[in-house]
Amino acid sequence: NAGVTQTPKFQVLKTGQSMTLQCAQDMNHEYMSWYRQDPGMGLRLIHYSVGAGITDQGEVPNGYNVSRSTTEDFPLRLLSAAPSQTSVYFCASSYEGSYNSPLHFGNGTRLTVT
Amino acid sequence: AQRVTQPEKLLSVFKGAPVELKCNYSYSGSPELFWYVQYSRQRLQLLLRHISRESIKGFTADLNKGETSFHLKKPFAQEEDSAMYYCALKGYSTLTFGKGTMLLVSP
What we know:
Number of helices of chain A: 0
Oligomer: heterodimer
Helix content of chain A: under 10%
Mean pLDDT of chain A: 92
Number of helices of chain B: 0
Largest sheet of chain A: 7 strands, mixed
Mean pLDDT of chain B: 92
Low-confidence stretches of chain B: none
Structural class of chain B: mainly beta
Distance between the termini of chain A: 36 Å
Radius of gyration of chain A: 13 Å
Radius of gyration of chain B: 13 Å
Shape of chain A: globular
Number of strands of chain A: 11
């Protein structure tokens, strides 16, 4: 049981480059989300999805796009990377059908934008 | 709006000492609260949730609606408890995290 899988683990980009962070879960979870983790800022929600075909913005969505074409996958796209997007990115999923369903996190992607 | 406040960035204690990591929240509805932990080089994982009223690894947390708090406590800290702890509040569709408290337990 793989849980939540994120790729790549590390990435270095130059300002202006684009890339996609991949996230896949094999638990048939309806809810998926992307957070960024920055020192002193905790985890901040970028985008989330409550099911295939449905996405919504979180606290810090600017500069990021998402799509949810399948239940399993929830990629995060950076269209034009900026140094301010240097961070550790976490994908998380949960089964929304049960009360108090916890989030299952991936291992994270450490992104550096130069 | 929902908000989670963890006032301490760092909490440093000696092994065997009691630990209390503070968490206060702001939410207009009925809160669902969690504590997540991130050990060094590991993914975040759920530690405990208020609805379960459970004790995990010796940690407990009680929801106090009057004080809007959900403090995490452990009577005797162990070195392996050193980690980053996040308090989280579940709103309508999203989970809001506090900024986290780093717990360092020294021998």
